[in-house]
Amino acid sequence: GRAATRFIDFVPTNPDGSDLLNGTVDIFQLADLGAAYNATAALHGVRVAALPDMGFYALAFNVRPGRVFTERDLRLALQLCVDLERDVDAASGGTGSPVYGGVLPGSWADDPTLPKPVRDTAAARKLVEGAGWQLGTDGIYAKDGVRLGADIVVRADRAERVKMADLIALQARDCGMDLRTRPTELDDILGGLLQYPHNLPGTATPFDLYLGGWSLAPDPADGLTLYASSNITDAKHSDGTTYANFIGFTDPDVDRLLEAASSTYDQAERTRLYRDVQQELAAQLPVLYLWASNSHDAVRSAVATVDGPLDLEVPNWAWQPERLVVQAASP
After folding, report:
1. pLDDT tens digit string along 212-229?
2. DSSP letter string, 15-80
């Protein structure tokens, strides 16, 4: 049928948001207007939405045989060591939101019931000790002569990621883990760590922890096929930027659920299957999800849809521009 929106003008706008206030611009996406503007926008007929970017940051575990975090209970223990909400706020400077799964927050397959563990060092230590590790005189657990320690590889040119790695390492000591931040140049990550056999740059030792960023598409499969067994890197499929499962994670239930989800057009069924995947990943914890950066969209309150008010709480709220309308001002 005929579009409700007769036309859309793309025009230059002042970066301070003043054009929204005087009504010459209706929508200003990816706007960085500052806390003071955002706090008073509603008084001037402007709505400001803080939306997660299409991507996330996470701490990836090398779960291949022989690595420290092959043991699931150690991964769960580290999760319990981390004060995620406070760490995200500190590392991102208040511009990020904690995430707990690999699906775009607020999208149709996002699972709002995913567990959101809070920091509990006693429970973390119980998991470590239950896995057979014993506390040493230096305050670090060990087993069979191996200390519970690892480097966290992180891009050296991303200050927020380095700060998050530092916070994780600091808090992990309260749980008897000796983690160390290892800032690394991007070229050494792309050409080294992400290439099979995924060694620490400059060494012949495989990595244990990598704090990095992943981009997402609206399709939930984009953020979840990272865990498919078919994407595991090996000597023949060595590039971890192409075969995304460089951590070596394999789970028959995840494979089965992903295959089923990609084999149906029934969105309700796909939603159920992808949420089951997220629950299984939360139980296995091959990566510790950390945060998503927020972007801001500013919209005049007069902008609505043919069906009613805009829902600015969901990502891609403007995905159907042909249904947008600007309501006439009251006489």
Report:
1. 999 877 788 888 988 999
2. TTSHHHHTTS-SEE-S----HHHHHHGGGGTEEEEEEE-SEEEEEEE--STTSGGGSHHHHHHHHH
